[in-house]
Amino acid sequence: MSKSKLDHSDARSDARLKQFAEIDRKTAPEGSHPAAKAAHRQTLDRKGSKRAEEFARIERGKEA
Length: 64
Description:
By secondary structure, the chain is mostly helical. The chain has one domain. The chain is built from 3 helices and no strands. It is flat. The chain starts with 10 loop residues before the first helix and ends in a 5-residue tail after the last helix. 0% of the residues are buried.
């Protein structure tokens, strides 16, 4: 029984993947948009997690 087309490696797609990965490595830190960099630097809002915790507690039926 022979392998399907999906089981075979395509040399062209491997080469393209390597090229895209190389470009990404070279340009990713400098090429990121300033808004994306700022979003990564923001601290997490802890109020939202407390609120979700309270909703989960109520959902489980534990009052007070």
